[in-house]
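Many introductory courses stop at the sequence. We go one step further.
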Amino acid sequence: MKPGLSNLFLTGRPKREMLRFIENCSGECKVWELVDDGSLKLDEKTIGRLKELASSYGLEYSVHAPFTDLNIASLNPHIRRISLKMVEASMQHAYKLEAKTMVVHPGFKGAQESFRPGEAWRDNIKIFQNLLAKAEKLQLKLAVENMPQGSWSLLSTVEDFKKFFSSDGLEGLGMTLDVGHALTVGQLNSFIEEFKDRIWHVHIHDNTGDSDKHLGFGEGTLNWPLTVRRLKRNGFSGFLIVESTRRPFETFLKVKALIEELEV
């Protein structure tokens, strides 16, 4: 299990600040998740610099596909097409960076769900089947993320994922377990136990169970040591990415120390 840090907390900041932060912290943090969205959206120049940093400091990356105002299962074909185009472009960025994992949000229910029940669900399956085929050609590990409660997401609960993963053509698809999101649906332990063979990547941050707050270490109700132990006991050996937007680097250092202390 390797601790890492998401650059999500730098959203809205210029890319040069993000690159400087990564370099300044490269002695402590060797794993970074790059949010390919907004002000942090990857481009050729930024990718080139990130590759230089990886070579110089022994860094490893995962890439988080864009998500702002996107819906890959939208019942509006124009929105769906634009969303897919952006995710597929992000997969190319991940390939160039030799990223270990590609994180993608699932689709969401739309305003016409009651008139067209099940259509977005079926489209979501077809889209991930197609994305998975493209990821395999690029030798990328594709991992769909669980969403928080109240988000209109098609995939929030353990039951949602059981049904989804039972679909044909998704055998090579992994899961990004978002610990904070799982807390909001009250199913963190069930996620870890039920999908131990599918969890390839983990986001960790805190909240009080009522909403998705991306708090730092100890600021919510998450039992951080117990969660890390459970992940280890169930065979998780991937990137444990701190996705806190409050006290992110301090939280990363605590998670890193926790992993070392628990010898995982």
